[in-house]
Amino acid sequence: GAVVSQHPSRVICKSGTSVKIECRSLDFQATTMFWYRQFPKQSLMLMATSNEGSKATYEQGVEKDKFLINHASLTLSTLTVTSAHPEDSSFYICSARTGDYNQPQHFGDGTRLSIL
Amino acid sequence: AQKITQTQPGMFVQEKEAVTLDCTYDTSDQSYGLFWYKQPSSGEMIFLIYQGSYDEQNATEGRYSLNFQKARKSANLVISASQLGDSAMYFCAMREDFSGGYQKVTFGTGTKLQVIP
């Protein structure tokens, strides 16, 4: 149980393109979803937290107009990197959790984004 | 100050031996949670074990156990009988609860574990 599907797993696109990444909880209702960014050989950096039906809470330093997050249902959250540039190239990984605070976050397999 | 500190960037362990990965944390909250995740080279994050701040017993999950010392603010992961498939990055994480229902999970910098045959 507790499977989170993230798609696509890899994206290569030109500078200026907008890229949408989907995160789905397949067998549970994800009250809260999280989006992280991970640079090579570094830890996960939380970008934003989203609760179903409400606006995402962004961490300090994360541009909300650059990284659009939508959590329209209990099983789906999307991250759109708008007008992506090479410095946006990174590994993006989502996680989902039920409403129970004591439950762990379950992670998707991540999306490796490369902007040329 | 770092919320989560993992002081061992890399560790080696002989197959079938036990290994302890260190994690210390910093919070003034009474209610928090501690997690360990494993990240193989393929990139996915795999949940291993959870310890709540009010849990009196150390958490155990199969070969994984969490040595929780609340007064010292440490939550070390012990892997018994190491296997080659245990080679991966291991992240310690802490959940903090804020007013309004906002939660934040902070990850440590990770420990790269290599199991030697």
Separation of termini of chain A?
37 Å
- Which shape of chain B, going by the Cα principal axes? globular
What kind of oligomer do you see?
A: heterodimer
Low-confidence stretches of chain B: none
Number of helices of chain B: 0
Strand content of chain B: over 45%
Give me the count of strands of chain B: 12
**Ends of chain B: how far apart?**
38 Å
Low-confidence stretches of chain A: none
Per DSSP, the total helix count of chain A is 0
Largest interface: A-B, 22 and 24 residues
The biggest sheet of chain B, with number of strands, parallel, antiparallel or mixed sense and barrel status, is: 6 strands, mixed
Q: Tell me the helix content of chain A.
A: under 10%
- Tell me the structural class of chain A: mainly beta
Mean pLDDT of chain A, nearest integer? 91
* Topology pattern of chain A, helix = H, strand = E: EEEEEEEEEEE
Shape of chain A: globular
Mean pLDDT over all positions of chain B: 92
Descriptive keywords:
heterodimer; A: 116 residues; mainly beta; seven-stranded mixed β-sheet; four-stranded antiparallel β-sheet; 11 strands; globular; B: 117 residues; six-stranded mixed β-sheet; 12 strands
Note down, in words, how this protein is organized.
The complex is a heterodimer of chains A (116) and B (117). By secondary structure, chain A is an all-beta fold. Chain A has strands at 4-7, 10-13, 19-25, 32-38, 44-51, 57-58, 67-73, 76-81, 90-97, 106-107, 111-115. Chain A is built from no helices and eleven strands. In chain A, the strands form two sheets. In chain A, strands 2, 4, 5, 6, 9, 10 and 11 form a seven-stranded mixed β-sheet that branches. In chain A, a hairpin with a 2-residue loop joins strand 7 (67-73) and strand 8 (76-81). Chain A is globular, with a radius of gyration of 13 Å. With 117 residues, chain B is mainly β. Chain B is built from no helices and twelve strands. Chain B has strands at residues 4-5, 10-14, 19-21, 24-25, 32-39, 46-52, 60-61, 64-69, 74-79, 88-97, 103-107, 111-116. In chain B, the strands form three sheets. In chain B, strands 2, 5, 6, 10, 11 and 12 form a six-stranded mixed β-sheet that branches. The model of chain B has no long low-confidence stretch (mean pLDDT 92). The A-B interface holds A 32, 34, 42-44, 46, 49, 51, 57, 91, 93, 95, 101-102, 104-110, 112 and B 33, 35, 37, 42-47, 50, 52, 91, 95, 97, 101-110.
